[in-house]
Amino acid sequence: MCLCWGDAGRIKLRAGALGPYLDRVNLKFLGEVFVTLLVIVDPPGMVPVFLALTGTMAAKDRVRAGTQAVLLALGVIVGFAVAGQTLLDYLHVQLPALQGAGGLLLVLVALQLLTGKTDEPAEQGGTSNVALVPLGTPLLAGPGAIVATMLFVQRAEGFDEYLVIAIGILLVMITVWVVLRFSGVIVKLLRPAGIEVLTRIAGLLLAAIAVQLIADAVAAFVEMYAAAF
């Protein structure tokens, strides 16, 4: 594998047969995808909920539940990334409308993170049930992550940027799995106060992302209708 720096925040990455596809990876776009989805999913904020749902399980069952939840979330998000554009075309929904709706939705999620009024599901029995619902969806693959992914797909130009989105999603899911895998250690290190602080910071960042989405949607609508008239 050979790494060569390019221009405009890109890096040339050659890896044998994958060289033509990984020739120019936009690191800026990759960072945007990774940070946005990571803030929305909020792994530190997921730790208390995960432990509440799996606290009575054996360590092996807890790890399996976390793995199943991450795999389900990955499948749901990738599914919407692939079929989202087709669904939008079928419903005749334009990107600015999706941006505005996504921004409003993310505002609600951000307010929940900032105020600490997130709804923690009641404790359930059964590893599979907990892994599928509510851990896999809607907690990990929630509306916010789905909408954000669809917006990134809308913005992508060419296979290179689709690949960047896929890498970003995969990195986020790997991060979530690692956090859930070592959730017990994380709680001991950060303690409840530390997790609460990180959750508030995530809420603030998410609110900023939401406001930017709404502003972009309004600007796009103004430009669209100004050009029409």
For this entry, give a set of tags:
5% strand, 229 residues, mainly alpha, globular, 8 helices, 3-stranded antiparallel beta sheet
Q: What would you note in describing this structure?
A:
The protein is mainly alpha-helical. It has one domain. 77% of the residues lie in helices and 5% in strands. It contains eight helices and three strands, in the order βββαααααααα. The chain has helices at residues 27-41, 43-54, 59-91, 95-115, 127-140, 143-155, 159-181, 183-228, and strands at 2-5, 10-14, 25-26. Strands 1-2-3 form a three-stranded antiparallel sheet. A hairpin with a 4-residue loop joins strand 1 (2-5) and strand 2. Helix 1 (27-41) runs parallel beside helix 7 and helix 4 packs antiparallel against helix 8 (183-228). The longest helix has 46 residues, at 183-228. The N and C termini lie far apart (53 Å). Mean pLDDT is 81; it is low at 121-126. It is a multi-pass membrane protein. Belongs to the UPF0056 (MarC) family. This is UPF0056 membrane protein. One of its GO terms (cellular component) is plasma membrane.
Pairing-aware structural class of the strands and helices?
mainly alpha
Overall pLDDT? 81
What fraction, in percent, of the residue positions are helical?
Answer: over 70%
Q: Give the spatial strand order of the biggest sheet.
A: 1-2-3
**What sort of overall outline do the alpha carbons produce when their principal axes are compared?**
globular
Main sheet properties: 3 strands, antiparallel
Order of helices and strands: EEEHHHHHHHH
What would you report as the Rg, rounded to the nearest angstrom?
19 Å
Total count of helical runs of at least 4 residues: 8
Query: How many domain units?
Result: 1
Give start-end ranges of low-pLDDT stretches.
121-126
Q: How many strands?
A: 3
Which band does the percent of strand residues land in?
under 5%
Subcellular location: Cell membrane
Pfam family, one: MarC
Membrane topology: Multi-pass membrane protein
InterPro entries: Multi_antbiot-R_MarC (IPR002771)
